[in-house]
Amino acid sequence: MYGKILTENGLEFDVATGPRQAKNYLKDNPGRYKLIILDSMMPSEGLFDEDEANRDEVIGDTKGGLLTGFFFFEKYIRPRKIPTVIFTAYTDIDEVQKFMNDEQNKSLIRGLIRKRDLHPLDFLNYIRNCLSG
Fold first, then answer.
1. How far is the C-alpha of 93 from the C-alpha of 98, rounded, in Å?
2. Predicted confidence (pLDDT) per residue in 72-119, tens digit
3. pTM assigned to the model
4. Which structural domains are found in the chain, ordered by start?
């Protein structure tokens, strides 16, 4: 539904179904992405490819996998300096706000969208606003 409304309004986007695909998009298309909409809960498939030795520690740091998107941001998005919107259904908003306000992250985090609170037209307007400013 969200993708359809973006397409109908002339916005181009790619959808990654997991970390491995997202890493490939970033690697194969440098400079293409002006904004990333990042789910805080990504599947773990491919996420730990380079960190297999530290897998258990990383899973612990991601609250048992609930915040895998944050690990992905820190490892793959932040180094590329791509503005990002956190898109989440995660209920511990204090944890999300802590991540967003981290000194290393806050210059790139453009906002937070809680899935349960957002109508598709509001989503469109929010993304347009992030892209323009």
1. 8
2. 898 899 999 999 999 888 667 888 888 899 999 999 999 998 887 778
3. 0.81
4. 2-132 (3.40.50.2300)
Q: What is the pLDDT of residues 78-87, one digit of tens each?
A: 999 999 999 8
Q: What is the DSSP letter of 54?
A: G
The residue behind tokens 């989503």 is 123
Percent of the chain as helix, strand, coil, to the nearest 5: 50, 10, 40
What tens digit of pLDDT does each residue of 50-67 get?
A: 655 555 555 555 555 557
State the pLDDT at residue 103.
Answer: 94
Task: Give dist(CA 133, CA 11) in Å, integer.
Answer: 16
Tokens of 44: 């773990």
Count the alpha carbons within 13 Å of 24 in the hemisphere toward its beta carbon.
9
- Tokens 């181009």, residue? 12
